């Protein structure tokens, strides 16, 4: 069982700027969010913490591990955030203005993000031999990876809040989504499918 956790807030998060691979650190709010979130993972069920190599994810992982007295057992390049090329550092509204078709120069293709996300899940599972692991990563990465498992379009997934958690489980030779942003999967899937239907009607 893996809990995919979005890192704490950064100044760019607060300002609504697209981060991607730009290595922006946590701010004071982000550190407080991580400390506050730790209690949700207490009780002995979770056994280790891993993260993306980017500083905002690593520091979030360190805060959680320290609060829960868990080992940090590695960083995984597969957990890096999607690269947004020329759009990094600007707001989503500016992205819509400059690239209304979302064809952004230098952007990592969605299918490549989901493919490395799946590789990352398998590698973490193999390295931890069935243990339950907290995986600190990034909102865009988590969305693409969950969508690859569930079969939904990533754009219909919700926006993930800082420190939100989505749980996946490997069982019967396949990955399964158990929750999305703290919401049980079946309930979240209804909302995702509703958004997909609304988008289709609006097209």
Automatic annotation (TrEMBL):
Pfam families to which the protein is assigned, alphabetical: His_Phos_1 (PF00300)
Organism superkingdom: Bacteria
Matching InterPro entries: His_Pase_superF_clade-1, His_PPase_superfam, PG/BPGM_mutase_AS, PGM_Phosphatase
Name of the protein described by the UniProt record: Phosphatase PhoE
Gene: phoE
